[in-house]
Design goal:
Number of domains: 2
Structural class: alpha/beta
Bound molecules: MU-OXO-diiron
Strand order of the largest sheet: 1-2-5-6-7-8-9
Oligomer: single chain
CATH topology of the largest domain: Metallo-beta-lactamase, Chain A
CATH class of the largest domain: Alpha Beta
CATH superfamily of the largest domain: Ribonuclease Z/Hydroxyacylglutathione hydrolase-like
Distance between the termini: 59 Å
Helix content: 25-40%
Radius of gyration: 24 Å
CATH architecture of the largest domain: 4-Layer Sandwich
Length: 398
């Protein structure tokens, strides 16, 4: 029996919780799982909006059939071709061979490339509409949020925005489907929606800004993304966050990330954290780059304005997990952060040198005096930790 929830009269959520997959896109840890949300509109003409990842195609087809109760599926709207949403297309087409597939001019080559489907395709352009009966759908192109063919579908009648990856989140839907049915902090959606944004969509901030501008004139009562919670009561919250995240606005907090083999760099990270709090910074996070997956660290770097990187030296360079993290940050092109730099070296050094190179590339403002302790930190190094914490606090708070 279908697990279905009504969004409005004749509009249904058909969602699937994936708690078995360990890594989204085979790289992002899914400690809290992920959901694939598709939606069905059962009007005079029927429409399925997006599908799900391939393992759920059997259930999706069965649930659509159950809901339609003998009616045919007229349209399949493809907002996005990435296989986490398109994986069930072939099975849907097999079940409904006459279904008209709706996408844009960039959708069709990817549809053919992945699934060999070329027939019954209807191309829509920005602003085009499609009448289903009481419901009329309107399509808006939002390229690179998250692929070139990405678009959103707006139900003009019920004011529902089917937003695909935009406004989506990691995390399964554990009973609560709408944002006001659950505590978003306890269920971690406030964290997971930013982790999804920063790691999946964050590279495309300029395109997110264009999408927000394009959608700004639309009256939205529900945002129904293809992953995670449906936004109903917190629509201004999530739109405001998308504005801030896409323009790289940071909150006055500090993320300290260290790479440490024998605890000396870690010890200095702890001193810096303490000195920051003593100086008045309320939000301080400390991460071991070797222990915490970079996606969680990047999530916090996207949130906070201050970043302090500390590394031991490793074979004349930086500690490899720190190199990985810095490479990820450069890949996303996150801008406008204050950077503090420290480290330790037993003989040749190299960690601080590599962080400085990163600072040059990323063009963040370096705050305070950088330093590299020799072997174990001495009192003079702890004093430098204090100076760095005070310099960062002054830049953040005053
Ligand atoms: Fe959820 Fe870009 O796919």
């Amino acid at each position: 029996m279908a697990l279905k929830v009504q969004l409005s009269d004749k509009v249904y959520w058909l969602g699937f919780n994936d708690r078995r997959k360990h890594l989204f896109e085979n790289q992002w840890p899914l400690e809290k799982g992920v959901s694939y949300n598709s939606y069905l509109i059962d009007d005079e003409k029927t429409a399925l909006i997006d599908t799900a990842e391939a393992p759920f195609s059997g259930d999706l087809v069965a649930w659509v059939a159950e809901l339609l109760n003998g009616k045919k599926l007229d349209y399949l709207v493809i907002n996005h071709m990435e296989p986490d949403h398109s994986g069930a297309i072939k099975d849907v087409v097999s079940a409904y061979p006459d279904v008209i597939i709706i996408g844009n001019r960039k959708t069709s080559p990817i549809l053919e490339g992945f699934y060999g489907i070329t027939e019954n395709f209807m191309t829509v352009a920005d602003g085009d509409t499609l009448k289903l009966g009481k419901h009329t759908l309107q399509f808006f192109m939002i390229p690179m949020v998250h692929w070139p063919e990405s678009m959103v579908t707006y139900d003009i009648s019920d004011k529902i925005l089917f937003s695909n990856d935009a406004f989506g989140s990691f995390g399964t839907l554990n009973g609560g489907i709408f944002d006001d049915e659950i505590d978003l902090d306890i269920s971690c959606f406030h964290e997971e929606v930013r982790r999804y944004y920063s790691n999946i969509v964050g590279k495309y901030g300029a395109q997110v800004q264009k999408a927000l501008a394009k959608l700004s004139g639309i009256d939205i009562k529900l945002i129904a993304p293809s992953h995670g919670i449906i936004w109903r009561s917190e629509i201004p919250y999530i739109i405001d966050k998308y504005h801030k995240w896409s323009t790289h606005e940071g909150e006055p907090g500090v993320v300290i990330i260290f790479g440490s083999m024998y605890g000396n760099t870690e010890k200095m990270a702890d001193y810096i954290a303490r000195f920051l709090v003593e100086a008045g910074v309320k939000q301080v996070k400390v991460y071991d780059a070797a222990k915490t997956h970079a996606s969680h660290i990047i999530n916090d770097i996207w949130k906070y304005k201050g970043v302090i990187l500390g590394s031991c030296a490793y074979n004349g360079g930086v500690f490899p997990p720190m190199a990985h993290l810095m490479s990820d940050i450069e890949h996303y092109g996150l801008k406008d952060r204050y950077l503090g730099v420290f480290g330790s070296a037993s003989w040749g050094g190299g960690g601080v040198r590599a962080i400085n190179k990163f600072a040059e590339n990323i063009k963040w403002e370096v705050v305070g005096e950088q330093f590299e302790a020799r072997c174990a930190p001495k009192d003079s190094d702890i004093e430098l930790c204090k100076n760095l914490a005070n310099a960062m606090t002054a830049r953040l708070l005053y």
